[in-house]
Structure formats: structure tokens, C-alpha cells
Automatic annotation (TrEMBL):
One of its GO terms (cellular component) is Golgi apparatus. GO terms for molecular function: transferase activity. This is GNPTG phosphotransferase. InterPro entries: DMAP1-bd (IPR010506), Gtb1-like (IPR039794), Man6P_isomerase_rcpt-bd_dom_sf (IPR009011), MRH_dom (IPR044865), OS9-like_dom (IPR012913). The keyword Transferase applies. The gene is Gnptg. Coiled coil: none annotated. Residues 10-112 form the MRH domain.
Length: 217
């Protein structure tokens, strides 16, 4: 995300409402502590730093997910960043069960360009974004296709978390891909596999292990 926000890392900000004390530690977690003398007063995690929320090329909030369990799901919190005179946690609510909303004020986001996504990307990813913009302008992709490309760019940049299923799929493709960019790279891979195949054949023969091969493959 925006480099100027990294100075918030390692710091924590508190907010007390009614009998609860909330603590927000940017890029770390959000916790809640019940300020009562009950023997089972709640104290726990409302979310751990997970990813950004991005709307219209702008970082609008930080998602803290996978907090303590709550019924059949985990607690999660969205922290909205707004301009303020000092760094402080200003407001806390629970719009739906176990999903919390925090408003964090900071002078670090007062500049109109302070939360733009594009400037935080590498040149290579900026080029991908430019290309997607051009494709959309030329009518080569739909609005939905454009949003999908942007999501992939944000995931590659580490701004959005890639789902486990998608990560597994990506790794699988890398592992089993049989496509080669050039004939030369294909020949090189073929020679390497032939050597490995010969080694395995010799090893099996040496240990008297039977094997079958299909000469047509």
C-alpha cells in the first residue's frame, strides 16, 4: 500500500465506548477488551491484517479478517481511513453480527492523492493497468473483464489476498504446464526428461523391478 502509511506500523490506537475498549494496530490487528469485573469478560481479536479495500483506484479501507470465532464464522473488521488533525481511532460500530467498522482519522490521508493505488504499483504492473485501460477504451474487453484484470493486478501487487483455491490452481498450472514459448525451450526440456527417464529405467532394471513403456508416447 501507500509507503507513507507504513509509519503507522508498530503503533496502536485505542477507543473506549461504553464498557468496551477497542485497540487498532495498523498492519497488525484489532482487539476488543470488555472493561468490567465480570469473571468471563470478553477480551479477544476482532481481526488480523489481511488486505486492502480498493474502490475507484483508491484505498478506502483496511480489512482485518480471521479474528476470534463467532458462532459459525470468524470476526472481521473494516477500518475506514479518513482525514483528521491527528492519528486517532474516532468511531466504532457493528453493522452486522461479528462484522465491525472502525473509523481511523489521520493527517496522512488528507492529501487528495494520498490514497491512490496506481502510484504504489511497480512499472510493470502500471503497464498492465494501462493496457487494460486501452483494451476497455477500444472495446476489446467488457467493464467486467476490466475489473477482473484490475483485481489480478492488485493480487499480484499483494494489495488483495489471493484465495487458497486460486493460489493452488496457479501453482498447479506452473507444475503441469506443457506449453513452451519456443521450440528450443521444448527441445531442452525434452532432453532433460529423456535423461531422467533413462536414469529411472536403469534404476528399475538394476533392482529387478518390472515396468512397461509405451514407445508411441
Amino acid at each position: 500500500g501507500p509507503a507513507h502509511l507504513f509509519r503507522l506500523a508498530g503503533k496502536c490506537f485505542s477507543f473506549v465506548e461504553s464498557t468496551y475498549k477497542y485497540e487498532f494496530c495498523p498492519f497488525s490487528n484489532v482487539t476488543q477488551h470488555e472493561q468490567t469485573f465480570r469473571w468471563n469478560a470478553y477480551s479477544g481479536i476482532l481481526g488480523i491484517w489481511h488486505e486492502w479495500e480498493i474502490i475507484n483506484n483508491t484505498f478506502v479501507g483496511m480489512w482485518m479478517r480471521e479474528g476470534d470465532s463467532c458462532e459459525s464464522k470468524s470476526r472481521q473488521t473494516k477500518v475506514v481511513l479518513v482525514c483528521g488533525k491527528s492519528n486517532k481511532l474516532a468511531y466504532v460500530s457493528e453493522p452486522s453480527t461479528c462484522v465491525y467498522s472502525l473509523t481511523f482519522e489521520t493527517p496522512l490521508v488528507c492529501h487528495p492523492h494520498s490514497l491512490l493505488v496506481y502510484p504504489t504499483l511497480t512499472e510493470a504492473l502500471q503497464r498492465k493497468w494501462d493496457e487494460a485501460e486501452q483494451f476497455l477504451y477500444d472495446g476489446l474487453i467488457t467493464e467486467q473483464g476490466y475489473k477482473k484484470k484490475l483485481k489480478e493486478i492488485f493480487e499480484e501487487a499483494g494489495l488483495l489476498r489471493v484465495t487458497e483455491e486460486k493460489e493452488f490452481e496457479k501453482q498447479s498450472k506452473k507444475t503441469i504446464s506443457l506449453e513452451f514459448e519456443t521450440v528450443e525451450s521444448c527441445n531442452k526440456e525434452y532432453k532433460q526428461l529423456s535423461k531422467e527417464f533413462k536414469k529411472i529405467k536403469d534404476l528399475l532394471t538394476r533392482h529387478g523391478i518390472a515396468y512397461k513403456t509405451n514407445s508411441g508416447e
